[in-house]
């Protein structure tokens, strides 16, 4: 039975009609047309569908819609502003850390969550934060370099 849910996504209030157990991923992609959040494994194991849920990176494929009202959801589309990319997005471009692009949105979400809570992460903290993100492209060294560069940029210009 469908119900009406009031959500806050990327700083905007919205309303959707859906089944309470519908995965947040489906609502984001199909109802709200936010296509940056990717379907990967559908089991919360690959990180391609990660979103920020009150600032924490979570897989949207196994986040039921009923758990979302009252929380802030941020997708890759909501990471940067209208005027400029988020420093993590810019660093991924600058370091050429994007290969096929499928997993990268989830990786950027995980990195943004890490940098919000740890402005100067160690390599071990970066690796741990990305542990649930699967990538087959082979740009791991560039990804680590991009996250370190973004951390540095954010410390130098803390408005983000």
List keywords for this structure.
36% helix, 5 strands, alpha+beta, 160 residues, 5-stranded mixed beta sheet, 6 helices
The number of helical runs is 6
Radius of gyration: 15 Å
Order of helices and strands: EEHEEEHHHHH
Mean pLDDT: 95
Spatial ordering of strands, largest sheet = 2-1-5-3-4
Share of helix, binned: 25-40%
| Broad shape | globular
Ends distance: 41 Å
Task: Profile the largest sheet.
Answer: 5 strands, mixed
Structural class: alpha+beta
Low-confidence stretches: none
Oligomeric composition of the shown chains: single chain
As a percent range, the share of strand residues is 15-25%
Give a short overview.
With 160 residues, the chain is α+β, with helices and mostly antiparallel strands. It contains six helices and five strands, in the order ββαβββααααα.
Could you explain the architecture of this structure?
This protein has 160 residues and is α+β, with helices and mostly antiparallel strands. It is 36% helix and 16% strand. It is built from six helices and five strands. Strands 2-1-5-3-4 form a five-stranded mixed beta sheet, with helices on both faces. A hairpin with a 2-residue loop joins β1 and β2 (12-18). The longest helix is centred in the C-terminal third of the chain and has 17 residues, at 140-156.
């Amino acid at each position: 039975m469908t119900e009406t849910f009031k959500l806050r996504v990327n700083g905007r209030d919205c309303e959707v009609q859906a089944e309470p157990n519908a995965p947040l991923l489906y609502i984001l992609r199909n109802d709200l047309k936010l296509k940056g959040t990717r379907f990967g494994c559908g089991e919360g194991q690959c990180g391609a569908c990660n979103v920020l849920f009150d600032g924490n990176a979570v897989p949207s494929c196994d986040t039921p819609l009923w758990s979302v009202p009252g929380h802030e959801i941020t997708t890759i589309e909501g990471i940067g502003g209208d005027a400029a990319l988020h420093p993590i997005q810019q660093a991924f471009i600058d370091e050429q850390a994007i290969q096929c692009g499928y997993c990268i949105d989830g990786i950027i979400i995980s990195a943004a969550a890490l940098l919000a809570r740890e402005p100067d992460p160690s390599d071990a903290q970066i690796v741990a934060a990305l542990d649930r993100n699967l990538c087959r492209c082979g740009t791991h060294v560039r990804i680590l370099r991009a996250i370190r560069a973004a951390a540095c940029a954010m410390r130098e210009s803390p408005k983000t």
